[in-house]
Every structure is written in C-alpha cells, then in structure tokens.
C-alpha cells in the first residue's frame, strides 16, 4: 500500500524551515573550525568532546545499515524510541483535532505522548489472548485517525502479535502504522523491517536498550520510508544524539557475537524460569513470552510485590493494567538473579 504522506503531515510542518546548524551548513574536511562557537582549546576529557556531534549520525547509521540491511536514508536515530514516538505526534497529529488508536495493554508512553501533544486517544483492548481485535479497530478508526501503535512483542504481555493481523492493519489503514519492536531480538517472529519496501505508511521502532544492553546511552531507532525519515530529520533537535553515545554505540555494534550469546542465554533462562514459577502453588499462570520478561498471574500480586521489594528484589506490579489483573511482570535476570528470585518466592510460601 502506498499513500501520500503529504496528506498526513500537519500544515505547519510542511511550511517549516528547519534549524540549520553549523555542522549542517559545512560539508567536507577542515583543520580550522571557527563556525560553531565551540571551545577551541578542547575539553577536560581524553576525547575531544568540545566539537558538536554529527547531527545525522552518519557513521553510526552506516553501521546499523550493515547489520539491519536497511539503507541509511531509511533510518532515524533518536534519544530513545520515545523521541521518535513524540516526533510522530508533532509531525502528523493536529492538536485538538486528530486522534490515534492504541491497543491496551501496551507500552504506556504512546498515551503519555498523545496527552502531551493534546491528541485524542481511541482505545481498542486486545483480546483475552492478547491479540488484535480487528473488527473493533476498524469500527474505531475515523477520518481523523492518523496513527496506530502496535507493540510486538507486546509490553507488558510479552507475546508477539499475529503477523497476518498486523499486515491487515497496514494494508487497509490510510494513516501511519507504528510497529514497536523493542523486544524483537528475543522473538522467533521476523521484524517488519523487511516490509518497508511494500508499505510507505509503516514505521518500525527498535532500540539498543534491550538486547544490546545500552539502555544508558538512550539510542532508539526508527525505520521507515525515506520521506518519513526526512520529516523526522526536519523537526528533531539539531544534535539529538550526543558524541559519547555515538562512539560507544559504534564500539558496541562490533560485538554482535556477544549480544547473540546473551540473547540465547536470556531465552533459555526465560523458559526455565517460567517452568519453575509454575511449580509454585500461588502462581496461577505464566503467559507465553517472546521478550526478555514474563507476565505472571499470582494470587496476591501486591503482597508478593512488596515482599520481594523488602528483600531487595524489584519486579513490576502490572495488576492494575487492563487485561493484566493479578499480574507481575518479571524481567529475565542472570542465572544468579533468577535463582535469588525463585529462592525468595519459595520462602514466601513456606
């Protein structure tokens, strides 16, 4: 499906003249840089952090391009995926007029960003097995619906959304479909990145925070059509990814084998932890997971949560979230951390 992206853009964004930084205006090599009002004497650190970073992160994008198989002009890098989410609202949703469709339970930042940008929210709950309710979604969409957010594997439930259902949404929706794949490295399902050539209304979000272990660097990735990436670059802050994060990410991306080994171990630990939790009498259900966490239904979620907190073990209480009543979300830790968790929970029931 090919749609006219310009028909979705806010008028003020179409007319916007983006900020032009010193590093945007000058291309090439130079030995004397007197254009950006930087400290010419250097920085008090070993690396020359006195210079502004590449505003388009070309070196880092080239490395990601080689790993993901996506051309650099189809890649946007943000200060976490949250920046890309916010830019989608600011570029395509008119405050007080347009709306977005969410499918709870899901990642909470979509709703927060909508509220910050004064964009109305329509909600269609996932089914009881945490899949899309396609009929209800079709009924909820109107002429002002600009974005649909689908998290797969989903947070906080951990399951992947049926691929054919997502394809149905993308093929029949005249707005943008945003697939958040923060946990895709832990799943058997293939990324929707491979569908970018088929749909210019598709935006795929990924991150270096989860499987890559770089949460502190705050680097999120958005993959989409070149025209949507151009919109992101037009309205983002000029230097949204700092030099330290860019350089450390480049170093980390050389260590694919280490990350793959961690992914394999995490999946194995996830399956073992699920089995052992099911042996505890107060555990009612462990939902299937394609992520690096599991959703566990227990008899007394708030009591058990506080019990673990008192022992220095922090999980996430999701018992107040729609469709997650009675549930705790547990991130998969190291073998030793998982052992401590199981030991504490075993003692809880004694």
Automatic annotation (TrEMBL):
Residues that the record marks as modified (N6-(pyridoxal phosphate)lysine) are 210
**InterPro entries tied to this protein:** Aminotrans_II_pyridoxalP_BS, Aminotransferase_I/II_large, HisP_aminotrans, PyrdxlP-dep_Trfase, PyrdxlP-dep_Trfase_major, PyrdxlP-dep_Trfase_small
Q: Which domain of life is it from?
A: Bacteria
One Pfam family matching this protein? Aminotran_1_2
Cite the annotated pathway.
Lipid metabolism; Amino-acid biosynthesis; L-histidine biosynthesis; L-histidine from 5-phospho-alpha-D-ribose 1-diphosphate: step 7/9
Please list the residue ranges annotated as the Aminotransferase class I/classII large domain. 47-345
Q: For this protein, what is the EC number?
A: 2.6.1.9
Q: Which cofactor does it need?
A: pyridoxal 5'-phosphate
Question: Which Gene3D superfamilies does its entry note?
Answer: Aspartate Aminotransferase, domain 1, Type I PLP-dependent aspartate aminotransferase-like (Major domain)
This protein's UniProt keywords: Amino-acid biosynthesis, Aminotransferase, Histidine biosynthesis, Pyridoxal phosphate, Transferase
What is the reaction catalyzed?
L-histidinol phosphate + 2-oxoglutarate = 3-(imidazol-4-yl)-2-oxopropyl phosphate + L-glutamate
State the family it belongs to. Belongs to the class-II pyridoxal-phosphate-dependent aminotransferase family. Histidinol-phosphate aminotransferase subfamily.
HAMAP family registered for this protein in UniProt:
HisC_aminotrans_2
Subunit record text: Homodimer.
Q: What is this protein called?
A: Histidinol-phosphate aminotransferase
């Amino acid at each position: 499906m090919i749609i006219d992206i310009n028909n979705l853009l806010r008028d003020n964004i179409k007319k916007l003249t983006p900020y032009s930084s010193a590093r945007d205006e000058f291309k090439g090599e130079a030995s004397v840089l007197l254009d950006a009002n930087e400290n010419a004497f250097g920085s008090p650190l070993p690396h020359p952090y006195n210079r502004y970073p590449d505003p388009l992160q070309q070196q880092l994008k080239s490395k990601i391009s080689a790993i993901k198989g996506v051309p650099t002009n189809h890649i946007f890098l943000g200060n976490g995926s949250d920046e890309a989410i916010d830019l989608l609202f600011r570029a395509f949703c008119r405050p007080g007029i347009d709306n977005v469709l969410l499918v709870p339970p899901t990642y909470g930042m979509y709703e927060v960003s909508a509220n910050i940008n004064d964009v109305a929210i329509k909600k269609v709950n996932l089914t009881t097995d945490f899949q899309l309710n396609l009929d209800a979604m079709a009924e909820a969409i109107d002429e002002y619906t600009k974005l649909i957010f689908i998290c797969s594997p989903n947070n906080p439930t951990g399951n992947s959304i049926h691929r054919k259902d997502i394809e149905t949404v993308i093929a029949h929706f005249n707005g943008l479909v945003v697939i958040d794949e923060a946990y895709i490295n832990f799943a058997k399902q293939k990324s929707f990145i491979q569908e970018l050539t088929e749909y210019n209304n598709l935006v795929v979000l990924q991150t270096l925070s989860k499987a890559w272990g770089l949460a502190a660097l705050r680097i999120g990735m958005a993959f989409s059509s070149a025209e949507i990436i151009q919109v992101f670059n037009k309205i983002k802050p000029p230097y949204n990814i700092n030099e330290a994060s860019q350089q450390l990410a480049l170093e980390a991306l050389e260590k694919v084998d280490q990350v793959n080994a961690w992914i394999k171990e995490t999946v194995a630990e996830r399956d073992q932890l699920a089995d052992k939790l099911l042996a505890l009498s107060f555990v009612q259900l462990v939902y299937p997971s394609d992520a690096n966490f599991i959703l566990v239904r227990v008899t007394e979620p708030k009591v058990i949560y506080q019990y673990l907190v008192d022992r220095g073990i922090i999980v996430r209480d999701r018992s107040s979230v729609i469709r997650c009543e009675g549930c705790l979300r547990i991130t998969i830790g190291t073998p030793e951390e998982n052992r401590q968790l199981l030991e504490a929970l075993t003692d809880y029931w004694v």
